[in-house]
Amino acid sequence: MAAYVDLDLVGDALIKLPFVRALRHAWPEAELIWIAGRGRTAYASALAPLMGGLLDRVIEESGVGAGLRAAVGAPRLDVLIDTQSHVGTTLALRLLRPGRFVSAAAGYWLSGVQTPPGYRKPRRLIRRLLDLAEFAAARPAVAAGGVVLPEAAQARAATLLPPGPRYVAQVVGAGGRHKAWPVERHVALAEALTADGAVPVLILGPAERDLVSALMARLPAARFPLQQADGSGVDLTIALAARCAAGVAGDCGGGHMLAASGAPLVSVFGPTDPAKFAPWCDRLTVLRAQDFGGTEMAAIPVAPVLAALRGAILSSATAEEARP
After folding, report:
1. Superfamily (CATH H level) for 151-322
2. 233 or 254, higher pLDDT
C-alpha cells in the first residue's frame, strides 16, 4: 500500500508522523510506500532515522504518471491514499487503478471510498489525514505510540541529560518570531521551575544562536544540551525530550518533536490556530493568547504555563509509578 504527498518539509513530516503510525498499525504486514511526487520528503533525509519499522520504501520526485509507475515497480497498488487536494493530480493518480483509492480532493468526490453521511472535514490537519487512513482501512485509525529512536541518539541524550534530575524542556524559538513565546517569559519560567526543584532544558536551534550566551549567564541551573552536543538533529532532540517529565513549545517544529517523544506537552498559541495546527499528543494542554485578552504570544502570562507544566509533571510521575 502507498500514501502520496506532493512533498514534505521537516515540519510537515513531523505533523504527519501519527498518520504514518496509523498506516503501519492498519497494515502491519504490508509493504508501506511513501511517495513524494512533486518534490522531496524529510522521511528520506532528516527524519529517515525515525522510520525504522514504519516505512519500507520512500520515493521522491516521481511525478504522477509513468515515472511513478516505474518507481513503484508493481503492476497495481492494493491501496493508494492521496493526501493532497489538487484535482488534476488526483485524476492522474486514479489512472494508476489501485485496488482501493482514497482521496479527500473535491470533497471525496473522486475517491473510491466515500465518507459516512453527514461527514464534515475537520479543521485539524492531522485529523484529516487520520480520517483518510480510517476510510481506507474501514476501521478506526490508531496513531498511539512513539517513534523508535536510534540507539546512538538515545545514548547521546542520556549523556547530555543523565538520570536523576526532573527535566523540563523549553523550546524557545519558532519558525516565525510571531509564533514564539517571548524570551523573557521563558527566563521567568525557567527560574520558577528551578525553584520547584526541576531542571530547565532549553532547546535552542540555529536561529537562536545569538541568545545562547546571555541565557547561559542568566540561567546557570539550566541545561543547553544541543549547544553542549555542538550540533543537533531531529532524532537527538526527540531523544532529549523523551528524558523530560514535560515540555513547553509554541506553534513550531520543536513542539512537534516534543510531541513525538511522548512527553506531556504544553502548547502555547497566539496568532495561529491550535484547532488546526496543535501537535498530536496523548497528554496535551493548549494555552491560547485569546484566553488572556490578546492575540499575540506576549499575552500569555508565565503563571498559567507554570501551572500547566506542574500538572503535566505530576501526570508524568503518576504514569511512571504505574508502570510495572
Report:
1. Glycogen Phosphorylase B; (3.40.50.2000)
2. 254
CATH fold of the domain at 2-137: Rossmann fold (3.40.50)
Give pLDDT tens digits for 168-183. Answer: 999 999 888 899 999 9
**If we measure between CA atoms, which residue out of 255, 105, 280 comes closest to residue 174?**
255
Strand, helix or coil for residue 59: strand
pLDDT at 231: 65
- Distance (Å, whole) CA 214 – CA 195: 20
CA distances from 145 to 1, 121, 324 (A): 21, 25, 18
Distance between CA 257 and CA 238 in Å, rounded?
5
CA nearest neighbour of 84 among 108, 106, 105, 61: 105
Residues of the chain with CATH 3.40.50.2000: 2-137, 151-322
The answer for 164, left when phi > 0, alpha when psi is -120 to 50, beta otherwise, is left
Q: What is the DSSP string of 249-284?
A: E-SSHHHHHHHHHT--EEEEESSS-HHHH----SSE
pLDDT band of residue 156 (cuts 50, 70, 90) is very high
Taking residues 64-90, report their average pLDDT. Answer: 90
